[in-house]
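Throughout our pipeline, every protein is held as a single compact record rather than as scattered files. Such a record has a labelled line for the sequence and another for the backbone structure tokens. The remainder of this section carries one protein's record, kept here as part of the documentation:
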Amino acid sequence: MLKLVILCFALFYNTVSSTRFLFGVEVKCDFDEVFQLTVSHWEDDGNTFWDRDEDITGRMTMFARKKIFFYQDGHHGFEFGKLEPYGWFLHNCTKNGNFREYRHGLSSTSGSNGLEYIEYTMSEFLKIVRANKKSDRKLDKTYLWESYLHQFEKGKTSFIPVEAFNRNLTVNFNECVKEGVIFETVVHDYDKNCDSIQVRWFARIEKVCGYRVLAQFIGADTKFWLNILSDDMFGLANAAMSDPNMDKIVYAPPLAINEEYQNDMVNYVNNCIDGEIVGQTSLSPKFDEGKALLSKHRFKVGQRLELLNYSNSTEIRVARIQEICGRRMNVSITKKDFPESLPDADDDRQVFSSGSQYWIDEGSFFIFPVGFAAVNGYQLNAKKEYIEHTNKIAQAIKNGENPRYDSDDVTFDQLAKDPIDPMIWRKVKVGQKFELIDPLAQQFNNLHVASILKFCKTEGYLIVGMDGPDALEDSFPIHINNTFMFPVGYAEKYNLELVPPDEFKGTFRWDEYLEKESAETLPLDLFKPMPSQERLDKFKVGLRLEAADMCENQFICPATVKSVHGRLINVNFDGWDEEFDELYDVDSHDILPIGWCEAHSYVLQPPKKYNY
């Protein structure tokens, strides 16, 4: 292997080392005000092509202040050395607003043309090699976390760690990916000169931010950000297992190796392997096996299930799975299953159309197995054939028999919930009160007074509604193990707004209301147990995440924790006013670590004030 490494490195070094890496910086701002900064990365092979966008190999846009400076070390000629760092600016940070262009070296960090500079260095940000390689032009507009990741390197921002969230992948990688772990990764220095051979080297994880890791090549100073779910990250010895003859995969270090080893590759490789890899914690083959399982889903496109009508929650309709993205599914009502003319898709987001997007997690309270409505006597809007089919399923379940499903039915087993302790379940009574985040609302920033209205026949399911004259009309079925129900007094204890029943007059007090209604509270042991304090402490104000908008559930947005209220976090969508903030339980599947969208080829919406 050693000979192969040296030969490969020598071959590529002679052809690639003359490339210089340059940064062009475009600045647009008002004088002395916050500006938008776009950094474009060219590979300069000796030609000058500042105006050709097709030659840009990477671009990053951020908001900053004008006292900033970018530079990049590189190689010049056929000898290792440092290219003189410089900055190339086009800006209008002048009193008269005229554009000014200049080139400035880093011999000093003081001014040129009347401006002062601070030095700003950053690691390489690798474009994601997506686990889902499906080409999609809409992904060109997805938001990336580049600027915040580089802020993290400077200690200026932080992210909620993956282990704090409820399960959001079909495979759990929390125990695999940790600081200090060594893995194999693709070295892209050689991409242009190697069409059929993949070049890899070893790297160590320095920091973990959601599904992004900051890593450093073994034996080099180069650091880079990589998504752990990309096709560029492998367990140690993956190359030997996947390509035993090493015909298509070779090991070679990055071009920017430490200077002391540039002329002594034998010692370089030996020191890397013996001194920094042998005996260290490495990414195991289970990591690669887990990634392979990500493409295997519990459900399949075309399956049918039952979907709660979000605009009429007393009704269930038949829906089909249109797309699957990890745990999330795009489901819609189709003409194939609807007994009448389909409602207008502009008025009903659950109705199928060419651009319909109704994305929910596979654990969403909105979906039920085929036969749920029939088993529980819930209003079902479906074709006659489907109603007859599900009545047979309900009868079989009642008789203790195995139902006969169609091949495309989502079954009760596929959407099974955790069993409920019978002793605890006996404590539940119709009329018991609790506090509720209305999952059918247009705003998710308060709790409501609510009651249990009736029991479903399916174990663990209840019909609940918010107290008031429209309680039955606005009621809906929900499993007791959910992220929307909270015990009486929760809002007051954690400083949240509690909305009293409609038409309630005066100041609402729980003790007075319970006495007036001759009602009791839902016992505490019926609610989800409070997470450990250790886990809750991982949700801190200012930490960043990705969050699905519960009003427009096709949108996943960059977001920030604004406040913490027990097991509820108040999330602000970056760039949006606080009136659009939403409350999420820490167990919600609608909050995600950063990098989730990137790894699943799902568009992460840019912040509202972010100019793309």
About this structure: The two ends are 46 Å apart (CA to CA). The chain has five domains: 2-121, 171-293, 304-398, 428-522, 538-599. The chain has a mean pLDDT of 80.
